[in-house]
Amino acid sequence: QVQLVESGGGLVQPGGSLRLSCAASGTSIRFYTMGWYRQAPGKQRELVANITRGDSTSYVESVKGRFTISRDNAKNTVYLQMNGLKPEDTAVYYCNYIRFGVNYWGKGTLVTVSS
After folding, report:
1. Which residues is 110 bridged to in the sheet?
2. Best label site of 15, 44, 66, 72, fewest CB within 10 Å?
3. Which residues sit opposite 94 in a β-bridge?
4. Strand boundaries in 1-115, DSSP class E
């Protein structure tokens, strides 16, 4: 059974940093593009960053230069390093990948940026 478990969220002041982790089980992430999404209250879920099996990365414009996605295939884990956090980054962050046309999601981890 495929499971994605996010961790690392919390309350942080503006300008602070957090590192999110997504631990996968029941699958090997090395074969897939992995993504981090977020959903803020009252807004649609949006793709924040993804990383291909070849380690190419892409980011939504609003986080470029502040967030970094990475993967450790040996640990079957994907990370999202978030620096320079802003109040508008407040959201539930979800890990995702697609296998054989099926979307797999974790339950999310809440990031709150507030003073």
Report:
1. 92
2. 44
3. 37
4. 3-7, 10-12, 18-25, 34-39, 46-51, 57-59, 67-72, 77-82, 91-99, 102-105, 109-113
